[in-house]
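Quick sanity check, Alpha/beta hydrolase-fold protein:
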Amino acid sequence: MLSDLISPETSPIGTRLCREVLPSSFLQRDVEVSILLPPAAAETAAPYPVLYLNDGQDLERLQLQPTLDALYARGAVRPFVLVAPHANELRVQEYGTAAHADFNGRGSLAGAYTNFVLQELVDFAQTHYKASANAAEAVIAGFSLGGLSAFDIAWHHPEVFARAGAFSGSFWWRQRAVGAGYTPADRIMHGLVRARRPHPSHRFWLQTGTLDERGDRNENGVIDSVEDCLDLIEELIKGGLDAQHALRYVQVEGGHHHPDTWGRVMPDFLIWAFGQEGGTATLPAPLPVVRLQLDPHLAPSIVPSSAPGQVEILPLVLPTDMPSIVPPPAAADLPTRQSDFAMPISRPVEGDFLPYAGNYINLVPEGTDPRRALRTQPQEIHIIFAGLSEAQTEQPYAPGKWSLKEMLLHQIDSERVFTYRALRFARGDGQNLPGFEQDDYVTCSGANARSLASLLAEYDAVRAATVVLAESFTDEQLNRRGTANNGPATVRALLFIIAGHELHHLNIIRERYLPFLQG
């Protein structure tokens, strides 16, 4: 075990950052751990309350140390120790639910990670940093998959952690893929919550952002990350959790699935977890969430009479002493769509595309509407890249191959080209459109000089525009055709090509890049 005190602070309000390397027999690797100690003036002989925070490698991106310094300076939090193990390239395997990997085999090491936390990390923090062994003084939290992991560990081990926080938690975690017979009952964490009652000591802080993603599996106008979290809250309440005293739900209007949003909302979480006595009263009341279901009878001008009937949504029971109501997202924030994809787009036939494109089209599963695939794919892209560093995304898996950044920008460029073709043909413009040389585009792209965050933001923007355009096409427009790269293409085929092209590259990432980076 190596210890490296980074910056021993002499300021009475300054936190102190330490770094340790903890060998783990469960994970079969050395785990770097960042520790933030309370200000020197707040030192005590008694054990400290403790926060175990997943994704410790992101403390700087979260601006966590300056945030803590500011909270200590104004006396907003009690002294506590923060213990933050770093994730590595195996993040998508080590985080998840210990009992179940997801449909794609992710989370296969979540059980080992849980054992690492319970049997190695906690003991280390208590032995070397005076972390409290009292479960009521121990909090575990995380972001995205790390939030799911934290919730799962606290849910099943209240004797160690009475409280948990999940920032944009990946509560979509499911045992069946969307388009392969998926139903809401396939969400793994929801099922685990249904299987047992909450412990009397359980307390949860849950956060989502209204721009966490754009996926909307059931086309009800509520993005999946928000709906999955609200559904989890409903399961907690059904199981007996007292929402008024044991739950804080924070929905950030305009919040993204990104450390910037999580860092900005961090003070709310830290005051909830470690606020001075009476300090939580200074927090704004969590807003109740009104779950609306569109009634076609009240909006005949925008909902066709053939629209399917309403899907019953059980009401969310929230504390009654919360005065405000969260307004629904503005229409401009929601992509337009066909009524409900009641009739999936039929597959293109021979003569609708060049032979090479059949390789992409065939990757889209039978019965899958490409519009739905376009909505759900970004989630997997973000999950893959969330576990990788900037340096890793700039490495080719073999000489002469693209880096992951170059591949991502290639996907963006190709989607723009294919979407442009679909637009031209849908508008009745059938003239021959030129092809493009993908390797020349990548060489001139400068992808490796850009940050991963900027590429993902561009990817999200392009995909959002693609989804809006794709969902605007009528049956007649889907059948229109033109010529591109000296061969035929229908609008219908181009939508399948866009979705299949991304599936092609996702397969390459899983089969070639990730094994290389993990090796």
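Posting the structure with no commentary besides this: The chain has two domains: 2-296, 355-518.
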